[in-house]
Amino acid sequence: IIDHFLGSSLKDEVLKIMPVQKQTRAGQRTRFKAFVAIGDFNGHVGLGVKCSKEVATAIRGAIILAKLSVIPVRRGYWGNKIGKPHTVPCKVTGKCGSVLVRLIPAPRGTGIVSAPVPKKLLHMAGIEDCYTSARGSTATLGNFAKATYLAIQQTYSYLTPDLWKERELQKSPYQEFTDYLMHAHRPVGTARSVEPTTH
User: Fold this and answer.
1) pTM, full prediction
2) What is the dotted CATH code of the domain comprising 2-159?
């Protein structure tokens, strides 16, 4: 389905290939873990991770998983709504492991201010301008990429004010029932009670 709709425009990039080892009775068994980002530079991005005995197989598997995890990216404006949307619609956060990535809207022409890993993902998602802030163990590339992916995913989960439904301004109860209140209102008597006098 992804190939049918986005096939020609999708580009993939290998973020990292790292060897992982498992201790067996005969010694260590080395496998390769591949991280692949995929996107069409126009509002769609995906991330795939695959482990395999051979590098080529790992990359192939990661590309398939990345295609299956493609998500739409909502873009917005920093200030005035002039031209096409170019940045994230609001501040969004993604967390994976100890890594916390925050994406902050930026004015047009700023570019993507970030580390190389989120920069690739944001560029593939079609975001032109964005500030980022990251904390935690960002050297762990897998978690760093996943946290950025989750932050990008959050762009569609916020209901921003421009999506609010138009509603009529409701009257307050005092305004609505003002006629009734005028008729029902009785002034409180201020006359003192007179004590009867005995002669």
Assistant:
1) 0.79
2) 3.30.230.10
